[in-house]
Amino acid sequence: MFTGIVETTGKVVAIEQSGTNRSFWIKSPISGELKTDQSVAHDGVCLTVEKVENGTHRVTAIKETLDKSHLGSWATGSIINLERCLAMNGRLDGHLVQGHVDATGTSLQMENQLGSWLFTFVFPEKFAGLMIEKGSICVNGISLTAFNVANDRFSVAIIPYTYEHTNIKNLVPGSLVNLEFDMVGKYIVRNLQLRRSQA
After folding, report:
1. Residues 161 and 80 in one domain
2. When comparing pLDDT for 191 and 139, which is higher?
3. How many CA atoms lie within 13 A of 117 on its CB side?
4. Cα angle 141-147-152, degrees, rounded to a multiple of 5
5. Domain count for the chain
6. Measured torsion, CA atoms of residues 136, 140, 142, 144, in degrees rounded to the nearest 10
7. Fewest beta carbons less than 10 Å away: which of 12, 66, 124, 141?
């Protein structure tokens, strides 16, 4: 479980393919502190640390993960957001994030508002029921508040700290992002669907 508060960024330094699996070696300020079997969110995707070596760590994405997220587009040099799992004795500064990406979205535009940045993203319309005005959304592992919500798009405002300390500053129109919708909303929608099917 995560909070969507990004700790640091890392750089993909090597990629290995084995069948349909793809392994990534990540160099970051926290890599040397990680342990094998530890869960770490990589751009919002929960991955298991397999190996730690010389200030880098290795994780592997299976086909399901590559299909549902934008990890398949990572290349050597890609900058990614990293967050270690939530310590249960700590404060929940963002919102509850599972690290299970629901869909990818696309960066539509970015507007510099001279003190903050406004980003607009489009997403598959079938997820419209999971988005609400001023609701929580996780974008590349960043806990954000959505507004200007429509059936296939939403906007977020980015403060300078988030802009400088995450990879959101690297997004351009057309960039793919990982999206995880609010877990509570998903349970509510699922419950309503089941009630309708049983009526």
Report:
1. no
2. 139
3. 18
4. 80
5. 2
6. -30
7. 124
